[in-house]
Amino acid sequence: MDQLFALAADPTAWVALATLIVMEVVLGIDNLIFISILTNKLPAHQQARARRIGIGLALILRLGLLGTIAIIVQLTEPLFTAFGHGFSWRDLILIAGGLFLVWKATKEIHHHVDRDPGPDLFEGEKAQMSFASAIAQILLLDLVFSIDSIITAVGMTDHVPIMVVAVLVAVTVMLLAANPLARFIQANPTVVMLALGFLLMIGMVLIAEGFGAHVPKGYIYAAMAFSALIEALNMLSRRAKKTR
């Protein structure tokens, strides 16, 4: 309790909290885009529930990982060396998550571009994704993004209470933004392709980081913001042409 009061009275702790909240919210955008695209493939009556469960799982995973910080820190210790790079558990998890994102985004782009894409490789002849399949895929990516999120948090502060508050705020923002973002993506087909492009880029970045090539996050999010701005201008242009 004394530690909490000491943190509350420390200006540097508030600065660290504000910085970490911004970082966690930004990192949560990737997670939220994936959840929005995936749940939009479910029947309408299951979409909101799937989004709540997906974001709830993200919160549980992040808080659970915070309780095992000693183990999380050890995930960055090299397990073996290959191609001149020491691979850790974190690297392997990032590579696996990146490959999954690249595969998923490529498959979704193919389904949107090809009028007759044929049956899905893992879903057989089913025309629509099942609720359990959506939750399983969300859980997999939640795990990848949660580990990356917590390792980022550990690198920014040593105080667990600050990390917990930042995670709670970030997940609350995700929860509030989930339904509006999903509706916006569903109502604008071109935004779907843009979001899938983001997922493809994020997947490649995760793979690169897993192989030891650090990609500054600022460049990634600046490119995403610029692309989103151009798409917003295109939407305004199309809307203006319709009203003429």
TrEMBL record:
The keyword Transmembrane applies. It holds the Pfam family TerC. The keyword Cell inner membrane does not apply. It is a multi-pass membrane protein. InterPro entries: Integral_membrane_TerC (IPR005496). The chain crosses the membrane at residues 12-34, 55-75, 87-106, 127-147, 159-178, 190-212, 218-236. It is found in: Membrane. Keywords: Membrane, Transmembrane, Transmembrane helix. Belongs to the TerC family. PANTHER family: MEMBRANE BOUND PREDICTED REDOX MODULATOR (PTHR30238), SLL1022 PROTEIN (PTHR30238:SF4). This is TerC family protein.
